Amino acid sequence: MPGVKEEIIRMISFLPEDVTVDDVMAELYFKMQVDAGIKELDEGKGVAHEDVKKKMSRWLSR
Q1: How far is CA 10 from the centre of its chain?
Q2: pLDDT digits (tens, 9 = 90+) for 4-56
Q3: How many domains does the chain have?
Q4: Are the C-beta atoms of 27 and 11 separated by less than 8 Å?
Q5: Which candidate, 8, 52, 10, places its Cα nearest to that of 32?
Q6: How far is 11 from 27, CA to CA, in rounded Å?
Q7: Which residue segment(s) compose the domain that 54 sits in?
Q8: DSSP character for 19?
């Protein structure tokens, strides 16, 4: 499994040539959030789909 540095270099290599520092930071933040979410799911900390549907229904009906 590649290390963090290698993952970041690979991710940046797929960005367009005219990428800005803000673009890179946004991609890194997005990846960090996705990775954290996947880790939570792997640890069984996720929210069941039905629970989300119930909460969304209550929020949208206000």
Answers
A1: 17
A2: 899 999 999 999 999 999 999 999 999 999 999 999 999 999 888 899 999 99
A3: 1
A4: yes
A5: 8
A6: 8
A7: 4-60
A8: -
